[in-house]
From TrEMBL:
<dbReference type="InterPro" id="IPR051217">
    <property type="entry name" value="Insect_Cuticle_Struc_Prot"/>
</dbReference>
<protein>
    <submittedName>
        <fullName>Cuticle protein 19-like</fullName>
    </submittedName>
</protein>
<keyword id="KW-0732">Signal</keyword>
<dbReference type="GO" id="GO:0005615">
    <property type="term" value="C:extracellular space"/>
</dbReference>
<dbReference type="GO" id="GO:0031012">
    <property type="term" value="C:extracellular matrix"/>
</dbReference>
<feature type="signal peptide">
    <location>
        <begin position="1"/>
        <end position="20"/>
    </location>
</feature>
<dbReference type="InterPro" id="IPR000618">
    <property type="entry name" value="Insect_cuticle"/>
</dbReference>
<dbReference type="Pfam" id="PF00379">
    <property type="entry name" value="Chitin_bind_4"/>
</dbReference>
<keyword id="KW-0193">Cuticle</keyword>
<dbReference type="GO" id="GO:0042302">
    <property type="term" value="F:structural constituent of cuticle"/>
</dbReference>
Length: 158
């Protein structure tokens, strides 16, 4: 795979330089390390043989197949969940579950392929438990009011 990319990149660079255009559409500068002189890509002169033969090897793509499974049970935080998935070609199958805050367990089973797309089925097990709301009558508290008292008015001596 890397050999194919390097070969194609070298061909593109050689052809674009021979035509006097930037390599693969990128403008840039090449600096000669010995002299410090800079040239643009379009001014580089690289001899290109007219009968260059490029060998392109087909890229090998591995057949997609995998499987994994994991689970978490954390007593400190109460986090409980797990997941399992497997793939064989273009078909992916899996399932994950988690413990919801109301105490029920949610399980999602899914299948995905090129023909039917992604399909998931959600199911719940257990009973939802919600905290009891206790209605409390408002408490009436009598607080003595303090009334501000003022002294005698100031007389003005004008």
């Amino acid at each position: 795979m890397a050999y194919t990319k390097i070969t194609l990149l070298a061909l593109a660079a050689a052809l674009s330089v021979a035509r006097g255009s930037p390599v693969a559409g990128y403008g840039g500068v090449v600096v000669d390390a010995g002299l410090g002189a800079a040239q643009s890509y379009s001014r580089l002169s690289v001899p290109v043989a007219a009968s260059s033969v490029v060998v392109v090897e087909p890229e090998i793509i591995a057949y997609p197949r995998y499987g994994f499974k994991y689970g978490v049970e954390d007593p400190k935080t109460g986090d409980v969940k797990d997941q399992a998935e497997e793939r064989d070609g273009d078909v992916v199958k899996g399932e994950y579950s988690l413990l919801q805050p109301d105490g029920r367990k949610r399980v999602v089973s899914y299948v995905s392929d090129k023909v039917n797309g992604f399909n998931a089925v959600v199911s719940y097990s257990g009973e939802a438990v919600h905290p009891q709301v206790v209605k409390v009558d408002p408490v009436q508290v009598q607080v003595p009011l303090k009334v501000a008292s003022y002294g005698a008015a100031l007389s003005s001596a004008y």
